[in-house]
C-alpha cells in the first residue's frame, strides 16, 4: 500500500514520475512527510534570507555562476514547479512564513541551501600538487 501511495504522490500531470524535492533545502520528501506548496511571491518575500547576495555577504565568498541562475535565489533546480508554486517540505514552509520573513536579521530555515548547504558536484579527478598521477574519485556503494 505504501508503494502505491508513493507512486501516486510522485506522478506528474504529464504522466511521468519525479521525486518530490523541497525547493528551499533540496531534500527529497519521502514517506508520510507533508508536501507543501510555496509560491514565488513567498520566496520573493524571503529574498533577504535566501538570496545569493545575502549568502555571499555572510560567508564572504562568491558563488559559482551556475548556482546563481534561479532568480538570484538559492533554490533547488530539482524541485517540481507548477505555475507559480514549488513543492516544499513542511519544515522549510513554516520557516518561510511571512511573520518570519519580516523579522529583521532572521536566518533562513535550518536546512535551507542558503544556510550554508551550497554544494556542487564532486570532480571525477583531483590533481594533488606534487603528485604525478591525478587521483580518480570512485563512488562506493
Q: What does this entry look like structurally?
A:
With 141 residues, this protein is of the alpha+beta class. The chain has one domain (2-136). It is 26% helix and 11% strand. It has a three-stranded antiparallel beta sheet. A two-stranded antiparallel ribbon has the order 4-5. The radius of gyration is 18 Å and the shape is globular. It starts with a helix and ends in a 5-residue tail after the last strand. The relative contact order is 0.19. The mean pLDDT is 80.
Outline:
This protein is of the alpha+beta class. The protein contains 6 helices and 5 strands.
Count every helix, treating DSSP H or I runs of 4 or more residues as helices: 6
Residue-averaged pLDDT: 80
Task: Give the strand order, joined by hyphens, for the main sheet.
Answer: 1-3-2
The count of β-strands is 5
What gross morphology would you assign?
Answer: globular
Distance between the termini: 28 Å
Q: Main beta sheet: strand number and arrangement?
A: 3 strands, antiparallel
Q: In which range does the helix fraction lie?
A: 25-40%
Radius of gyration: 18 Å
Tally of distinct domains: 1
Q: What share of residues are in beta strands?
A: 5-15%
Spell out the helices and strands N to C. Answer: HEHHHEEHHEE
Spans where pLDDT lies below 50 across 5 or more residues? none
Q: Which structural class fits the helix and strand makeup?
A: alpha+beta
Amino acid at each position: 500500500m505504501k508503494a502505491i501511495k508513493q507512486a501516486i504522490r510522485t506522478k506528474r500531470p504529464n504522466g511521468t514520475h519525479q521525486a518530490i524535492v523541497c525547493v528551499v533545502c533540496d531534500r527529497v520528501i519521502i514517506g508520510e512527510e507533508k508536501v507543501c506548496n510555496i509560491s514565488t511571491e513567498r520566496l520573493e518575500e524571503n529574498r533577504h534570507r535566501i538570496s545569493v547576495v545575502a549568502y555571499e555577504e555572510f560567508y564572504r565568498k562568491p558563488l559559482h555562476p551556475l548556482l546563481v541562475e534561479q532568480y538570484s535565489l538559492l533554490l533547488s533546480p530539482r524541485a517540481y514547479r507548477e505555475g507559480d508554486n514549488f513543492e516544499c517540505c513542511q519544515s522549510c514552509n513554516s520557516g518561510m512564513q511571512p511573520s518570519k520573513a519580516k523579522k529583521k536579521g532572521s536566518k533562513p530555515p535550518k536546512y535551507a541551501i542558503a544556510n550554508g548547504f551550497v554544494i556542487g558536484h564532486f570532480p571525477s579527478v583531483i590533481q594533488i600538487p606534487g603528485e604525478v598521477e591525478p587521483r580518480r574519485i570512485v563512488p562506493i556503494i
